[in-house]
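Entry 14. Two folds queued back to back today. First construct below, sequence then structure tokens.
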Amino acid sequence: MADLLKLLLRVSEKAANVARVCRQEAPLFQLLVQEKTGDDKNKKFVQDFKTLADVVIQEVIRNDVGAQFPEMVGFIHGEESNKFQNGLGECVTVTVRSTEEDTATLLATVLDGDLTAATLLARAIHQDPVTINTSTDGLTVPLNPSELGIWIDPIDATSQYIEGREEVVEDGHLSPSGLHCALVLIGVYLRSTGEPVMGVINQPFNHKDPASGSWQGKIFWGVSCSDINVCSVSRPKSLTTGSQPLSVVLSSSEKQAVKETLALLCGPEKLMYASGAGYKILCVIQGLADAYVLSEGSTFKWDSCAPHALLRALGGGVVDLTKSLECDSDVKVELTYHQPYSEGKGADRWANYGGLVAYGDSSQLSIIIRALKGKL
């Protein structure tokens, strides 16, 4: 299973390269955006966009993992449909072909015959990334690929990716919005129980190279299986010192009752806001916030699976908020990833309907659950 992790690290960086290439071609990028409709539309937003970058990234990951681990084909799930409508109204099914030239030919049909742009994308898809400085040597995981499934969020915080603001981020602070919030998320779960056991988070727009002016990324990963808990991130200092008061990150659209309750618990200065569900959980992983609270069912399995695995490796987790409020405050009802919501349609079948709390420390989770009881 160390081989699977190495593959996911590599394909996440390939995906990040695709995301960067699409942003570098501004005129092209405007042509790639189309609004989601029907059952695939996220109800939280007035406008929710699918880009060709989303679709291409998802299919790159699905193709590469399926090629090396054929027993996982059929259990590699993503946020996006791989159908894309071009300017002529033709519906094209986007797949990765066996050669760069064939992939470019297919993409050109999406891009209204723009073979130059299609070739640029195809090169990013088929080009292996440079060596990734992430050591997984000596890691063994007692799992078989036939036991596992994968959730892919090709670009979490798509609206931030589309808008493309380049925010300046100070050390030790989170980024409320902008390209930093756009992430590639690949989560691995057990088919039998739905437990998240492995996660890769790639932040394609982590920092700009001062010499070239080009964006550089950063990769985070974690494995949590049986008694094996390994993460590329050290346990956040705030979790080792038990510092108070708590700091919590929220969505700006969070319910007023939740904002007011947590402001009393944490203090207004410790209540922060950021874009992207995956990024907000990454803030907890990095210790930039102690917890992320969301009271609505506006996130999905592909948003939370990868970062959930990293938090588990660090001793934390992601719980269903509604179910946790119904239980004793010390009972943790962790999210699982293997079963759809039977009454949902389209993307909603995989929503985290009860809301969530991502936490780094169980005692802090208990404090938050106790504070929110009777408030929702």
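Second construct, same run, same settings:
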Amino acid sequence: MADSLNGVFDVAAFLQSLAVRCVELLGVSAAGVLLADPQGELRLVASSGEHTWVLDLFALQQEQGPCLDCYRSGAAHTNIALGGLEATTVWPEFSTRARAAGYEMTQVLPLQQGDQMLGTLNLFQAKPRVLSPDEVALAQALADVAAIAIVQRRSLERSETERGQLQEALTSRVAIEQAKGVLAERWRCTVDDAFGALRRHARANRMRLAECARQVVAGELDTEGIRRP
């Protein structure tokens, strides 16, 4: 959160790191951050893993799922059994696809500052383990950190509109996805491995992750200089 005061703060990298930390600290299988675009549509901007089925589950929640309900109401949805009555009745397609991907439970926490809803933090669990009240409180604290950092960053950038920072994160995500695809195809590796190599190169060269991705896609960066997975 302190990094959000830095002039070169990278929102995409910050949210990516937060998603990874959620998995490490809470013992869940996957985590993702969804932010609302200027039209109020939820978009995935960061996830702990890059597997296609995980990304599909996050994308599906633009239309149906607990993330959409959480964003609209501002209320957390915790310890949802994906095979339970609530999930199969309220979100039938989402629950079916989530279970097919190997997940048994999900948690959704709001990213909110005051009465301003920014998006949601979504957690998936492969094992049917109920998170304790302390773990849920920790998950919400991590979501609050993300919300505070986004709002703080927004207040420091006078030239941007209220939702400008969110749009930057969404644009960065597109560039990162394209770069992952380019590297995965070029190296004949998984997108997870391609993303890991891209992130390591950006860190080693003190580059913004999104800028590194843009240069890969534009052919401005010699990919032979990136250490392969």
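Quick look at the second one. The chain has a mean pLDDT of 86. The first helix runs from residue 11 to 26.
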